[in-house]
């Protein structure tokens, strides 16, 4: 049976969340097994091996600021911040990002990497307490930030919806965002607003972007997308009533009803989003009949 999880949702490790507050366990000499260095622009060291790309983990040191990622195979893995030009990393041959390697790593390494990048992004964007403005510091193995007044802040994730709108037969809507180059298309997407359900966000975004009314909104899986801190919630939705596309030119440059044949062999065959994206997974599942 093929794996229908989106590629960045393939995590295989145990996050061991209860251990984040277990200072005694974390502090045992030799507890830390391996560290993944992440740079300020979210690149990590990568090795080319006969079996493909691997993350170049480093032996962890007990005295370095360390974000606990979880356990795998009986070992504790963590994330450290790195400067590429530091002498410590003079031996690194390749620094690559999640977008470049996320789809080709093993499920265990992909899961650890997406978690490491999400946490690095959050720490970088949260140096001050959002409540009182004082500098905050990382505590609890990097899973909380706290200011001198004790205000607690936790890693943030912003929900976004991404939806394949179909006609109940053989066509779906592909659009090109105004900021994308000509020839690139994907399914529609947008952020969930404050106080809004995911399903309501699907209906609202479709109406705003292409002027369609949708019904039969069905969940189709999710994928973390830490660029910088999104969680993509996938859906399918059935267009109802008038199927005329009325494109909001501010957000969408063009949108089209496209048949399966046009995506697999026709004008849109080279327009599919990259395999890293959940959009790719949803479209290919729809093409193969796994989705309505
Ligand atoms: Zn505070």
Short recap of the structure:
The chain has about 290 residues and is α+β, with helices and mostly antiparallel strands.
Reading side by side through the largest sheet, how are the strands ordered? 4-1-6-5
Q: Could you say which overall geometry the principal axes of the C-alpha atoms support?
A: globular
CATH homologous superfamily heading of the largest domain: Nucleoside Triphosphate Pyrophosphohydrolase
What ligand species are in this complex? zinc ion
Number of strands: 16
Supply the number of structural domains.
2
Largest sheet, if any? 4 strands, mixed
Q: Judging by the overall fold, what is the CATH architecture of the largest domain?
A: Alpha-Beta Complex
What is the residue-averaged pLDDT?
95
Series of H and E elements? HEEEEEEEHHEEEEEEHEEEHH
Which structural class do the helices and strands define?
alpha+beta
Q: Could you tell me the radius of gyration in angstroms? A: 21 Å
CATH class (first level) name of the largest domain: Alpha Beta
Task: Describe the 3D structure.
The protein has 292 residues and is an alpha+beta fold. The chain has two domains: 7-125, Nucleoside Triphosphate Pyrophosphohydrolase (Alpha-Beta Complex), CATH 3.90.79; 158-287, Alpha-Beta Complex (Nucleoside Triphosphate Pyrophosphohydrolase). It contains six helices and 16 strands. Bound molecules: zinc ion. Zinc ion binds next to loops.
């Amino acid at each position: 049976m093929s794996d229908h999880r989106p590629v960045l949702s393939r995590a295989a490790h145990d996050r061991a969340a209860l251990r984040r507050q277990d200072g005694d366990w974390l502090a045992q000499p030799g507890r830390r097994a391996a560290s993944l260095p992440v740079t300020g622009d979210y690149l990590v060291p990568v090795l080319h091996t006969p079996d493909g790309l691997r993350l170049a983990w480093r032996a962890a040191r007990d005295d370095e600021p360390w974000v606990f990622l979880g356990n795998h195979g009986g070992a504790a893995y963590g994330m450290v911040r790195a400067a590429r030009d530091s002498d410590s990393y003079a031996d690194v041959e390749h620094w690559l990002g999640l977008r470049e390697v996320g789809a080709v790593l093993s499920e265990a390494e992909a899961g650890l990497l997406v978690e490491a990048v999400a946490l690095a992004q959050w720490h970088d964007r949260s140096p001050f307490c959002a409540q009182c403005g004082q500098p905050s510091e990382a505590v609890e193995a990097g899973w909380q930030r706290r200011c001198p007044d004790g205000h607690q802040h936790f890693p943030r994730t912003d929900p976004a919806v991404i939806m394949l709108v179909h006609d109940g037969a053989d066509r779906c809507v592909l659009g090109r965002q105004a900021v994308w180059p000509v020839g690139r298309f994907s399914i529609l997407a947008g952020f969930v607003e404050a106080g809004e359900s995911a399903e309501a966000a699907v209906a609202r975004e479709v109406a705003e972007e292409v002027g369609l009314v949708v019904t039969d909104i069905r969940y189709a899986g999710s994928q973390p997308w830490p660029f910088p801190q999104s969680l993509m919630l996938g859906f399918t939705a059935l267009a109802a009533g008038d199927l005329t596309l009325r494109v909001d030119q501010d957000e969408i440059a063009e949108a089209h009803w496209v048949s399966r044949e046009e995506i697999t062999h026709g004008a849109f065959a080279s327009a599919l989003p990259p395999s890293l994206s959940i959009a790719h997974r949803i479209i290919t599942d729809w093409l193969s009949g796994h989705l309505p």
